[in-house]
Amino acid sequence: MVTVSTTPAPCLRPAMALAPSLGAPSLPSPETPNYQIQIGSLKRILPKKRKTLAYRFSVGGRLSTWPAYASGQAILQSRKPCCSPEGRSKKQASLTIAKPRYLEELECYLRKELQSLDLTKENAQELKLQPYREIFEFFIEDFKTYKPLLSAIKNEYEVTLAHLREKIRSLEPLKAMLVSVSDECTRQIVALQEEEKAEITRLKKEKLYLLKLIDKMKEEKGSLQTQVNKLRKNVAKEYMRYINECDARKLLLADLNEMRNQQLEMSLRQVQEVKGEDLVKVTLALKIARQDLTKAQVELNTMKADYGDVVPRRDFESQEKKYSDLFEKMEVLQKDFDDLQKEYDTLLEIHQETVEERDRFYNELQQVQRSSTPRPDWAKCAEVISGGPERWSYLEEGKTSDQLVDVLLEEIGTGVLKEKDSFPGLGKGDKVPVYLRYEGQVKNKKLNKKDVVNILKEIWKEKVSADLQKGKQSSLPEFFLSYLQKRYGDSSAFEWAYTIYENIKLYRSNEAMSLFYDILSGKVDEGLYHGQNQLIANLLKELMASDSSNSGTLTTEQFNLALRAAFPLKSSDRIQELIDASRYKAESTEDLIDYRSLFMEDEEGNAEPFIAKIRSQHASEKQEYLRELRNELSHAPEVKVDDLKTAFCAIDPAIDDLTLDAYVCLAFQASKEQWDQTGSLPVDTVVERLLAGDTKRIGALPEEIYTSHSLSERGEAGAYA
């Protein structure tokens, strides 16, 4: 027993001694007979204990010390060697310590509360925590000296538990979202695997079909070779038979001659005997006859020697005709076999490229799935774009995410451009374009799209007229500045130039502004603008020629024929794309196309989908044409004038000399008289310069190039299917 004082140290020891025992209470079994009796008595006793605990500390003045590890049993310390048996017995008797009664009451109360709880509920852990919280409150109330510190500890734990519960509640939706995203990714991967399995199965079937076709052609070739060998043997047999017949004929002629001579001698003898002619006369006749016979025999032997190996012309011509027919058939079959072999090799290459491309796309898909962000909700832009949802639906129609980003940048740039009152001048250096050479601040005219497009149309109209009068093409930057000076004066010309330049640099989605900016900055040759206008003008001329009634409408068949007449080099698929684009906004179901409306433009210079499709096809055809040229020039890193002309003639045999010279001048940036002074240029530089100009195919594709091009198109279509 120790004396309890008001200082913190003595009071802390019983609290620290009691706290560990509450962490692992020894609970009685519910099957004990006295269990219900103890619970009932505790309900009556425990409220009184809380009131009398302070009284015990103040009145008794003493508190029994009891360690947490005693568990109601005596503790025997280790015996020292110098201690006597009597001293040891006295120490053992004094170390037997009983558990304090207040601790036993608290443990009984804790056991009762824990056993009365329903731990099958979801909040079982919180229910289980409540009895321990009440026990801790008992300690706070009884230990007055440490009540502020214990209350602060209890409040901090409560705040921490509340914070953790709130954090757990906030993370539960994220867990559900993570599960849904994982399921969606799994479904996409399974779908892609199914598509790849179908594609692989189709390619395997096609490969087996081609292998069977090759085996069949090999069998046909073997059978034809067997027939040729058989015919050769038959010809040799016939030749031997003819030789034998010729020899037999010679022997027969010799026998006939001998028989004729014998008959002649017999007849002479008979005549000599009958008529009794003179023997000398008969002898002389016989001698002459023998000389004639010798002469005839010599001639016969000469003919045998000269024509012994000769067959009849009729039989020779018949066998020669049969041989030529068989040889022609064999050549045709050999050519077909070579074509099939080339096509098979091409298909194998396309298959290998397709497999590699599929693997690359799969890897890219995996990377995108790991690092991709959710697709933006573009509908939100309708709330901030001027014009509201109607204008935004018009702007986003038919555009990809990248193009929509450009549209947003244009809208943002439009607002920024309207807020500017002036532009800083770029100076008068040589690197500054002639139409921007100005020092100081330049006033912003604050033009809209419609005004800029109208000014650009007037500039093109004036420039075409001026070039026709001069007979040569002038520089667009210089004409641009001179036109503005002529119309607005020297003082305001640079204000208009800076304003127009900033607008066409901003609105890249507008075809008229974008093309004018590229030509003005030197990225594209001016011939591209005139070539597109000439292309559209020729098409309109063909359509008007097909419209005999001048009604402005054509049937689909007439429209198709007019397109093929205007574009004889386009494939059927691209013609069909143009027909579909012409019926993009068709409201009626009649088989009529209003071709005049296809060439209309809105107030901002935007063309209809039909004209946009023609321009996109023209650009893709130019890229294919230059890709063939690059493949033709791939044998050397640099190219000369003669090499370029040879390559153009190889991929486009119908190209005329005037067009060929124009392409060469464009590629080498030199006139025809300066070709001898020009050296060689890299292939990439030549192709880039031709890509910036109005380069197009003049004649149809050669047969070999057309075949490989068709095969590559079929391979690409199969790869993207």
UniProtKB/TrEMBL annotation:
Keyword Coiled coil: yes
InterPro entries: TSNAXIP1_N (IPR032755)
Keywords: Coiled coil
Any one cellular-component term (Gene Ontology): cytoplasm
Entry superkingdom: Eukaryota
Descriptive protein name: Translin associated factor X interacting protein 1
Gene this protein is translated from: TSNAXIP1
